[in-house]
Design a protein that fits this description.
mainly alpha; binds heme C; about 130 residues
């Protein structure tokens, strides 16, 4: 359950992050969050094929692959993940996390697929709110 002030803070943050994304797109990262209209349905397919094994069907980091992983896969439903900008999530997917089973997906996924999967991660994290 979320109290009214929490909801309000969330809206403010979501708005702020959106502005932040708009501004940071001028720094020309290798994949821009705005380059394609992200497609959640395509993102879901990518997620189910490549990510669910670790991050779990609902994004809570409880997929079957999580048990054998020393570093627990990120739980996208946690506020900590939710607060990250699309750019930050995209960077992690693109380059991976050093010394963790989360490897870089650049080369395996297209720019569009990476953006779609971020859009789908957002759907999963929304579901927890
Ligand atoms: C082999 C297991 C594994 C697979 C497969 C995997 N991940 Fe991860 N992922 C992890 C782990 C472990 C972490 C956490 C690393 C850490 O906490 O330092 C992580 C972290 C992340 C993060 C960072 C979240 C945050 O809050 O900073 C994102 C985004 C992410 N993964 C997306 C994906 C996507 C998208 C896919 C599929 C294309 C994927 N992962 C596939 C294990 C995996």
């Amino acid at each position: 359950m979320m109290t009214a002030p929490q909801k309000c803070i969330r809206r403010l943050l979501a708005g702020g992050l959106f502005v932040f994304c708009m501004m940071s797109s001028s720094t020309t990262p290798s994949v821009s969050a705005q380059a394609y209209p992200p497609d959640r349905a395509r993102g879901k397919a990518v997620y189910e094929r490549h990510c669910q094994i670790c991050h779990g069907p609902t994004g809570r980091g409880d997929g079957p692959g999580a048990a054998s992983s020393k570093i627990p896969p990120a739980n996208f439903q946690k506020f900590q993940s939710f607060l990250k900008s699309d750019e930050e999530l995209l960077r992690t997917i693109e380059h991976g996390v050093v010394f963790s089973p989360m490897h870089a997906w650049r080369g395996q996924l297209t720019d569009g697929e990476m953006q779609d999967v971020v859009a789908y991660i957002r759907v999963l994290s929304e579901q927890a709110r």
